[in-house]
Amino acid sequence: AVPPSLEEVAGAHLPSDNSVLGLGASALGLVGLAALAGRRRQNERASKVAMMARETRWAKPAAKGMKPMIHRKETRDILKDQWEGWHKNKGKNLEFMEKVVRQQLHGKMQFQFTSEHFVDEQPLMNGLKSTKKDTGVNMGHRYDEVWYVRKYLEPTQFKKLAIASWEMPENYTRAVTLRELVDAGVQYGHKSNAWNPKMLKYLYADNDGTHIFDLVQTAAGLNRACYYCMEAAARGAEFIMIGTKAQARPIIKAKAEESGVHYCDLRFVGGVVSNFKIIQKSIKLMKKLREDKEQGAWNIFGPNQRLRNQCKLNRLTKKYHGIENLTRLPDICIFVDEAKERNPIAEMTRLGIPAVGLVDSNNDPTFIDLPIPGNSSGSRSIELVIGKLAEAIKKGKMIREQTQEGNREVFPKEWDPWIFSRDRIRSIRRRSKRQPWMKGMYGSYENWKKCHPFGAIPSMVPFHDFKWNDLWKDR
Predict the structure, then answer these.
(1) Quick one: pLDDT band at residue 376, thresholds 50, 70, 90?
(2) Distance from the first to the final alpha carbon of the chain
(3) N or C: which end of the chain has fewer CB within 10 A?
(4) For residue 390, what pLDDT is reported?
(5) How many CA atoms lie within 13 A of 244 on its CB side?
(6) pLDDT for 313-335, tens place per residue?
(7) Rounded to two decimals, what is the model's pTM?
(8) Are the C-beta atoms of 171 and 182 separated by less than 8 Å?
(9) Strands (E), 214-295
(10) Contacts of 39 (CB under 8 A, 6+ apart)
(11) How far is CA 296 from CA 289, 292, 378, 413, 439, in A?
(12) Strand partners, 240
């Protein structure tokens, strides 16, 4: 037999046209299904990556598909969870606590307790210094804090609330006359369209759009203020004069240095009274820089470092040159123009320091203990008032120097109720205090304010030395 040729063999195995079309269609179908499955897997993978990316941003606010912040493990309070777990099993014995400690240390250390008590009565860290203030049984007096000493240990003799009931003797010597006030122009106030209605009681008339002060009240207020300052200086009071407006700066500096009191003429730095401890550090730095410069300690520095030190010394001197010898809180504040010195007056009010000063027709005399209504814009008026107060202070210091230390009058210590009152704080004092019982008992809120001009003042027991430990033990 003749074997088949190569063409015959190939032709026998070649498919027909219809079969070729069927195979192509099936192949295309498989490719399409594979592509669809791959796209679906890609979408699932992309969504999973997006969810994972969201989970890694644990601090992001709640978004779609994210757990709330309190349910994420990154924001759990681990210490709280551990404490709650220990608190639930507090009834168990020592072996459980030993197991907890070993679990926390991961087996790196072994504990062998010598007593049945897990915590000793006196901890080992008791002798070390702590950054937090001790409160409770171990609380002691803080003698290094001036405000604490003023409030609890050494109350001041010159209280803000005592001035309301203070009266001068009948045979006092007048410090000023009406002729001196008129010559200095104290009677002129601001324009009538720029005034404070609280100053109405000190005004006499409106002359051609300008307010005129009642000089009888001005003379009475200045005489009263001078006698109070003289009496306080005789008892050893510390004064501070504040006048930062252009007309008052040279007068304040000259009269304060003449009478030997502290002063702020260029700027009153916030916290001189309320943040006394920190301000003293800056004053100490100023003195150290000045001493180093005088002794030649800057010679080892380069020109740039010496320039920086000089600029720092100039800046500190500008701020604190008038109060560098102030070692304790002042007892009385003397100022010029309440509208200009509102910040220092707020600090004095908060700490219960009496304020004496010259108030103009646009000032608020509410928290001025001894107001002197008059012209606070004229240099002659300022010089007259501040000069009379400086003379009264010098006279009081002379009376104190002439009296021997053993013969000086001793005044008993008394708590200052204003310091213990919440109404001394400006943020609380400015809130609405209208209560129904005020209208029932006093007729209106305004009548209650007239009867209580300083707010709610607590009643105080007689002063006595105490220890915080005794108070806590009584509880």
Answers:
(1) very high
(2) 128
(3) N
(4) 96
(5) 16
(6) 999 999 999 999 999 999 999 99
(7) 0.70
(8) no
(9) 239-242, 262-264
(10) none
(11) 11, 6, 45, 48, 71
(12) 262, 333
